[in-house]
Specification:
homodimer, 377 residues, alpha+beta, Dna Ligase, domain 1, D-amino Acid Aminotransferase, Chain A, domain 1, 3 domains, 33% helix
Amino acid sequence: MKNTMIGILGGGQLGRMLALAGYPLGLRFRFFDPSADAPVRYLAEQVVAPYDDHLALDQFGQGLTVVTYEFENVPVTTARVLERRVPVFPPPQALEVAQDRLQEKRFFASLNIPTAPFAPVDDRESLEAAMVRIGLPAVLKTRRLGYDGKGQVILHTHADVDPAWHALGGQPLILEKFIAFARELSVLAVRGQDGSIACYPLVENVHRNGILHRSIAPAPGLASETQTLAETYARRVLEALDYVGVLAIELFEIDETNTRATGARLLANEMAPRVHNSGHWTIEGAVTSQFENHVRAIVGLPTGVTLARGYAAMVNLIGSLPDITMLLALPDTHVHLYDKAPRPGRKLGHVTICAGDATQLADRLAVVERYVLAEAR
Amino acid sequence: MKNTMIGILGGGQLGRMLALAGYPLGLRFRFFDPSADAPVRYLAEQVVAPYDDHLALDQFGQGLTVVTYEFENVPVTTARVLERRVPVFPPPQALEVAQDRLQEKRFFASLNIPTAPFAPVDDRESLEAAMVRIGLPAVLKTRRLGYDGKGQVILHTHADVDPAWHALGGQPLILEKFIAFARELSVLAVRGQDGSIACYPLVENVHRNGILHRSIAPAPGLASETQTLAETYARRVLEALDYVGVLAIELFEIDETNTRATGARLLANEMAPRVHNSGHWTIEGAVTSQFENHVRAIVGLPTGVTLARGYAAMVNLIGSLPDITMLLALPDTHVHLYDKAPRPGRKLGHVTICAGDATQLADRLAVVERYVLAEAR
């Protein structure tokens, strides 16, 4: 891997953890981020410029072996410009699909991956038509730039329609049926340049205020057929896009009663063409971390084993940081800070708890959650 | 850990792995190394200057929270100069003791830690006197700057004395009885600022051409009393020096027959007041790595659990690098490269193999060793 230099679009915590996973393989890193204050600023080269600065992109691209991204709202044009001179993985088409909820849902549908019923909403009339087709409750979402629960409103009754339209109207939208799902799961998969695919054990995710709060891996009490089904879906997406790198798909697990109604056990909600917050547990909890596997894949190295080492949970540190002394004093508890300034709703770090069995994990997780949530107040 | 900046004397692979372990804790790093080509050059700030450049040391010290070292031949004066303005851990006295084999052996003796019989050698007469006292075979060593088997000659018979004197005479030396030890072990221990001490499971080390080739952790077939004894010795050293950080002690394990003769089961050979090559397995193989525990200790955080996660082995990559593709394709095998130019006898990286039991470990290790040694030819 002599003199292999990876260019990463985005210099946030995901980029930071990619570099920390890649340095041991002798890889070098250069980041592109509009902010001089990015979390990677101390640990690698950085080009600070807006994503549409072609001169800066040109400078960034010089001498790179491969380009990747850690942020799925990187403009597709930026990736395409770079692709003219250096391979970009995952393929920019994955960005394109993931950036538009309508395209994304149509893409899932085209691969026979079930989703909640959905319809495009371009104006008030198409919203009415969509509601007739889908029924209420439903979720009205912006097609682009939504994340962490932003850009979406639940329509419980018709009384919610006017305020929702007031908040979101005037931009391309999508209406999705509100699904009474049992829980959110995610599947992380990695595809190498040789086309080999490996999936991590499914993760159970819990959100608070629209932001991922906690993941447990492997997802407790998961039926093995559910794992297999999710892997089948991930495989279809990866192959359709001729994907290289790590991909995450968020899934809704439907309970038995609703499965009979919808005919599906899992519904695809959205995909992220990058390493994912719900895969942070893999740093300590899996044989090979999602970060290492992503860099291995994009530079053409074999991907590593994706098995869990035991039982793991991840809790995000959001908005403000607790004193980490107490956390580090707990057994097999690992703290990751991103070197970011505190701000409400901002992901500042995460804690991974490992354990030898599910009960031990639950006990340790309870201690960490109580502490983290008390401190965050 | 906001704005905590750690200064590290030495920018080699140990410094590199310290930084990679410390970034997740939100820590920042600045290195001091005479070479602009140091392995840390891409991943942190670096002051490039000789260790006696006081102006550069002054610049280096600015704004640091704490200073540590990753190289035990850093001049003690350098550490003392920095100590005037910023805490230095481990204490410079540990450097002083470790840099001189005679002081080191006397220090062990003062703590009732058994060593091979030894005597100072300052001239030809004291060599003769030492041989009379200790007998042959014995090892003649330079007191200072010996590492990786350099600066030592074995005296099997009197015929070896003249050539040995020719090679090493004219500098302070030490003569040590040649010990027919069963194997070399090492104990790694960490002491926090609160005085708490934790030890890793003992490691079995095998050298080739005087350089560490391979470590297995935990050391196979180790008697629990041997672990306890080594921990007792480590504790004495740590407490005598009011030590903070990770310390390694190399030990000779003596078989039963020789134990009856020497009266000791373990002899201390030397200590390293820093993270150590025989502790690299802890990155994947222990709950908390030696690197993370060292940075936790020196910044005053609680140290983490030092238990092994399973069975691990480490093989050094020396002189030239094999193609790592084959290594990465093996299960639970982890490659660490230091971004150094190849050179005979130079440590360029290491491979850690993890396994669920000792047999699986031995099988995987055999594959890795065969490959690494074949490629190194």
